[in-house]
Design brief:
The chain has helices spanning 6-9, 12-15, 64-67, 85-94, 113-137, 149-173; strands at residues 23-27, 30-41, 48-55, 75-78, 97-100. The longest helix is centred in the C-terminal third of the chain and has 25 residues, at 113-137. The radius of gyration is 18 Å and the shape is globular. The chain contains six helices and five strands; from the N terminus they run ααβββαβαβαα.
């Protein structure tokens, strides 16, 4: 974490209005300020099993190990933001099978072995993206108005819980659960 300027820490009224934990990040040439919701979801039922909240500037690769859960599955399906040689080796040490999409700076053509493998992995991985799509479109939850990481963690925890309840109701209605 970066140090908080003394002009903020010395004045509690200013500190109450400044979010000193949130950070800026860029995605697709758009700037965002706030926090990220990292999740471990069951690929079969799309239920959030574990989550983590970090400032938006934190790279996904730093959250991978905290989200791992052998009770869910020993295969890790994730997008290219989680890929590195170090993460591949760490997953192997911990007894997980890596299903990380490998794009590391270049998109592999569909006719190459790596391109076909990425396509197979993406078919399972995209099920987790449905979780974020539901939260953003149906729950209007990707925008939170809180100050401080502890409040952001609480809000995101409740959002994940509300999603799980909505998903469970849908699974019960479809008689899948």
């Amino acid at each position: 974490m970066e140090r908080v300027p003394s002009c903020i820490t010395n004045n509690p009224h200013i500190a109450a209005q400044k979010d000193v934990h949130a950070r800026w990040t860029m995605k697709n040439n758009a700037s965002y300020f706030g926090y990220k919701n990292h999740i471990n979801a069951d690929a079969k039922h799309k239920i959030v099993r574990k989550y983590g909240v970090t400032p938006a500037s934190t790279s996904d690769i730093h959250c991978l190990e905290a989200l791992l859960d052998k009770r869910n599955d020993n295969r890790v399906w994730a997008d290219s933001a989680y890929y590195s040689k170090a993460s591949e080796n760490r997953l192997k040490e911990l007894g997980f099978e890596s299903r990380l999409i490998r794009r590391y700076g270049v998109h592999f053509p569909a006719w190459t072995y790596q391109g076909r493998q990425n396509s197979r992995y993406a078919k399972v991985r995209k099920r987790v993206e449905h979780v974020f799509g539901f939260m953003e479109n149906s729950m209007k939850g990707m925008f939170i108005r809180v100050i401080g990481i502890s409040r952001a963690k609480t809000k995101i925890c409740l959002m994940n819980l509300a999603y799980n309840m909505a998903r469970f109701e849908q699974l019960e209605r479809l008689d899948v659960a």
